[in-house]
Structure formats: C-alpha cells, structure tokens
Amino acid sequence: MNKILIVKHLKETYQDHNQKFKALDDISFAINQGEILSLLGPNGAGKTTTVSIIGGYLIPTSGKVILKGQDITTTSKRPSIGVSFGGEMGFYRNATAKQNLKFFADLAKVPFRKQNDEVNRVLATVELSNVANKKIGEFSKGMVQRLHIARALLGSPSLLLLDEPTSGLDVEIAHTIQQTIKNLADTGISILLTSHTMTEVEKLADKVIILGAGKIFYTGTVSGVVNLANSTTQKSLDNLEDAYMALAPKLRRK
C-alpha cells in the first residue's frame, strides 16, 4: 500500500529539574493512504508530543517525519496537513461559518479565486452547507466539531490529525462525526486519531499504536490488543477498553 506518512526513529528529549526526560524514545511507524491509525496511551506517554511534531508545532531532538516522500522536519515548505483539535474555541462566534472558513482558507494559502469553491466543498463534506450563513455563536457543539473538521480539510490535505473529535458530544452526534471520519478515509485521506473513547477507536481504527513511557508498546489491530491482553493476563477479555485497562500498568513511567 502507498505510505503517506513514515515516522523514523523519532526522539524528543528535554530537561526536567536538571534531568533529561525522554518524551519520545525512538519511535517508528507508518500510515497508509486511506488508513485510520489511532494513538493510545496514558497521560505522559508521548501522544501529544508525537502529534505536535507531525503537525509542525515542535521540532524533534532527532528522527524524521516523512510525508509523501518529503522530510517535513527539515523544511518550511511542507505538504499540507489538516489539524483538528476541536473544542469550543478556534472560531469567530459573531461571524458565519462561511466567513470563518474563508479567513482560514486564506491562512491555508488557498488561492483567492478558489476560496469560495473550496469553502463550499468542505462545508458539503461535513454536511454543513445548509448553515453556511449562520453565525458560529448559534451552532451546537456537534456542528462546531464538524466545522473544525471542515477547517482541517481546507487545501485538500493528504493527512488529517484529529484530536478527540467527539469529546463531550452525545452518542447520536458522535456517531454522525464518526461516520464523517470513515467517509473521509474512504476517499483516500489518511487519519491519525487520538481518542480516550475506546468504543470510538474500535469503530474507526484500522491500526492501533499503544505508547508507554515514550516507547511503542504495541502496533497492530484492535483484536490484536485484546489477544495480547488475554495472553498477558490469562483472562478472557473481549473488548478494547477492558484489554487496554489490563495492559495499562505496564505503560506507566517508573
């Protein structure tokens, strides 16, 4: 399969109270085109650091992040990556959805003559075309969350970084957003997903990486996590949440 993202021997070390702290300790993985990969791990495992480096918000101590054949840790001219951190913030509440997205399209360097079509395209993708001229202050949480995804899609990125895309939403709205994410992957967009909702990971993830103390503890499928937990604990677990909880003590920093 066509690998969109390749992470090679990524390390991130910084000083913490006169001691070196390894936030990431030599991690490597890849994401194929159209694949949804979910990062799991306890707080402090290195998930946020990994996403921050891939998104261009942090320069690693060493290692490479190769997106579509280009090492993006060493260049300012990097291929487009869509980032959605979600939440209530990030938009001008007194402006409409279309006005907000036209502003962000400009930041994403979408040519002016193409901005209107691009904004219409991403609004249609997340099924918000009917509220394009509605002010963000009148949006529900679910609508705002979908607008975050629309913003991340500006410029047609090949990779999306989605952080807790359904956090704080009710089950029905969360299901709608999960279906949107699946549909995006079906079009060939690769997705790196972080989520604390294990049922969501079970529904969406083609591949799972479990981080512990800055290292990769496991790479594989959801069913593989369950099998690993069962063989490790000699129990008969049948879902990701129970399996993850059984493995959690092994993931903590000493």
Automatic annotation (TrEMBL):
Keywords in alphabetical order, please. Answer: ATP-binding, Nucleotide-binding, Transport
Which InterPro entries has this protein been placed in? AAA+_ATPase, ABC_transporter-like_ATP-bd, ABC_transporter_ATP-binding, P-loop_NTPase
Boundaries of each ABC transporter domain copy? 5-238
Provide the GO MF annotations for this entry. ATP binding
Q: Which family does it belong to?
A: Belongs to the ABC transporter superfamily.
Q: What is this protein called?
A: ABC transporter ATP-binding protein
